[in-house]
């Protein structure tokens, strides 16, 4: 253990919920300037100043979009939340909220109306063929193919006939250039995917801008994950202890206090908070607390005890290959499915809301350390859960429809409960013998 070293990621806890959807500022500025010139007959100001600093109109636009556009922000008095998106960590005053709303009215409210109308029209056109969706690869005639493209200026154009020389756009997944009317192009890199080749597949081309996973992951600020340093395990433990002490002092801290502070950070009311997280560590490379027969046996462990642990059905290395498991038919060592992942976290490290990989069940074993809290939603409430998530974070889902497979987004369970979605929680803790402990979990975790 003294020699165990692992890579970490920098996880921005304040961005797990309070973040804007990925948006290329250059693309936004291009479309916004074109709107002003063509529909308003004027040019955009080079600078818009708010509290002595340049105001990022792209951020402001996306923040207001998150909370249901201007009328809804005014009605629900959400300018404080909008302010946190635009200026995270800054102090909020009634004056600053008022000024921000006035700046939005002056510069963006007309563009909002234009943008919404444009997306309504796109949404109508995108519904073509959706009602006839019966199979993964629809039969189409190449001569009548339509697809989404951009010209050099970034404008969308419709290609009505796909001539032979135009078969330059191929699906990055299946490498086919056919079925172009269901080819979805990334609005940043312009690479294409058939909507039935995406994971999970889509039934129609989504309205608005869409970004591929590669482009989303390339935006460091988008999801708050940045590669961190390599840490020896003991050095990481000491750092984690210092961070917890800095937040809560030396006194014993209740879970209620930790939970309250965590959700305050997630919802953006505390400021910028980043932690280190050793996540998705492939145990075939790094090993874990579960021994394998070919691992080196510590001298302090007897041979019989070692062999018993190596062969135990509760050893997560053996679990996928047990009698009765359909995963026995899988002959590849797929990380996270056939090979366990190892996670080494600290205070506020987060495993976000998600559908389990491949919609399989999940098992988690806590080797040592502080207790962990799990939130879960019954599987039969999955549709209601996703509906609430989409209504609360519409811009994020518009940009990435498979958001719930990405483990990058949090929403306070109280919000889900207020909207009728049952949420259960359980504390996972290590217990030394001869302690007795009993617990239960819901049928399926999200």
TrEMBL record:
Domain ARID span(s) in chain numbering: 22-116
Domain named JmjC: residues: 308-446
Localisation: Nucleus
One of the Pfam families matching this protein, by short name: JmjC
Keyword rRNA processing appears in the UniProt entry: no
GO molecular function: DNA binding; histone demethylase activity; zinc ion binding
Keyword Plastid: no
GO CC entries: chromatin; nucleus
UniProt keywords, alphabetically: Metal-binding, Nucleus, Zinc, Zinc-finger
Domain PHD-type intervals: 168-218
CDD domains: ARID, PHD_RSF1
Gene Ontology biological process terms from the UniProt entry: regulation of gene expression
Gene3D superfamilies named in the record: ARID DNA-binding domain, Cupin
Protein name: Lysine-specific demethylase 5A
Natural source organism: Sesamum radiatum (Black benniseed)
Lineage of the organism: Eukaryota, Viridiplantae, Streptophyta, Embryophyta, Tracheophyta
């Amino acid at each position: 253990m003294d020699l165990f070293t692992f890579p970490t990621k920098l996880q921005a806890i304040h961005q797990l919920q309070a973040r804007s959807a990925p948006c290329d500022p250059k693309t936004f500025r291009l479309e916004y300037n074109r709107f002003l010139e063509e529909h308003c007959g004027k040019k955009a100001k080079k600078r818009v100043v708010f509290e002595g600093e340049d105001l990022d109109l792209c951020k402001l636009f996306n923040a207001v979009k998150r909370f249901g556009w201007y009328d809804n922000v005014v009605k629900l008095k959400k300018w404080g939340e909008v302010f946190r998106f635009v200026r995270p960590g800054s102090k909020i005053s009634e004056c600053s909220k008022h000024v921000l709303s006035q700046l939005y009215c002056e510069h963006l409210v007309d563009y909002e109306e234009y943008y919404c109308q444009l997306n309504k029209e796109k949404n109508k056109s995108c519904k073509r063929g959706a009602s006839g969706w019966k199979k993964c690869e629809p039969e189409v005639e190449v001569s009548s193919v339509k697809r989404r493209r951009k010209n050099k200026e970034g404008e969308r154009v419709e290609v009505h006939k796909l001539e032979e020389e135009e078969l330059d756009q191929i699906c990055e997944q299946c490498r086919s250039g056919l079925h172009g009317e269901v080819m979805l192009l990334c609005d940043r890199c312009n690479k294409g995917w058939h909507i039935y080749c995406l994971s999970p597949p889509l039934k129609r081309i989504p309205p608005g801008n869409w970004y591929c996973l590669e482009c989303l992951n390339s935006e460091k600020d988008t999801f708050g994950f940045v590669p961190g340093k390599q840490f020896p395990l003991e050095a990481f433990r000491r750092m984690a202890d210092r961070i917890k002490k800095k937040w809560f002092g030396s006194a014993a801290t209740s879970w209620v206090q930790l939970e309250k502070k965590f959700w305050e950070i997630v919802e953006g009311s505390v400021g910028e908070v980043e932690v280190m997280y050793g996540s998705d560590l492939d145990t075939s490379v790094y090993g874990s607390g579960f021994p394998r027969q070919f691992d080196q046996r510590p001298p302090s462990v007897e041979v019989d005890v070692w062999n018993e642990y190596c062969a135990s059905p509760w050893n997560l290395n053996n679990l996928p290959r047990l009698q009765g498991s359909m995963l026995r038919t899988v002959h590849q060592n797929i990380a996270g499915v056939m090979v366990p992942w190892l996670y080494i976290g600290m205070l506020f490290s987060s495993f976000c809301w998600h559908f389990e990989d491949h919609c399989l069940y999940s098992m988690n074993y806590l080797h040592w350390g502080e207790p962990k809290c799990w939130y879960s939603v019954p599987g039969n409430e999955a549709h209601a859960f996703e509906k609430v998530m989409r209504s609360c974070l519409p811009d994020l889902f518009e940009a990435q429809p498979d958001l719930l497979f990405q483990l990058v987004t949090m929403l306070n369970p109280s919000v889900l409960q207020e909207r009728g979605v049952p949420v259960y929680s359980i504390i996972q803790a290590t217990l030394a013998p001869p302690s007795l402990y009993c617990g239960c979990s819901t049928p399926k975790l999200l």
